[in-house]
Amino acid sequence: MLSSLRLKSIAVIIGLLIGPCLVAPTLGTETNRAARLGLALVFGFTALGHFAKTDAMAEMLPPSMPKRRAVIWISGVFEAGLAVAILACSKCPWVGQAIIGFLIAIFPSNIYSAIRRVDFGGHAAGPRYLIVRAPLQLLLILWTFRFVLKGRP
Questions:
Q1: DSSP class of residue 148?
Q2: Of 3, 48, 117, 123, whose CB has the highest number of CB atoms within 10 Å?
Q3: pLDDT, tens only, 37-80
Q4: Alpha helix (H) ranges present in 53-152?
């Protein structure tokens, strides 16, 4: 079973994603702008994990991969850059394409981690964790498509 800590992390990600959309009408903010802010918050939050939990995240990569810690740091910098780009480049289709490509590219590490029961991010629950992770990943892809690619001004 997924631990309450893992469920809290998923709840935080979903809260960061949709929270700005829930308060947007109250603040008079356009929904698309709020949705982009939510996605930027998610990428900022996950980028922090790359720096705060580098060793644990490195375990999500196969031992045969060289420089696993460096890969985690680089991907964290990339995620932070995406968070900034989401907000700074509202008319750039490459931002949405980069996000979707990144989300697809990292999903195999989640499969590997779940199969290997890596004790990080819920993966210790084994393959059943993918029942939660895959829909979350799909939600992020669909959100990006709708609000970053299609929702451009």
A1: I
A2: 123
A3: 999 999 999 999 999 999 989 988 999 999 999 999 999 999 99
A4: 54-58, 68-88, 93-116, 130-144
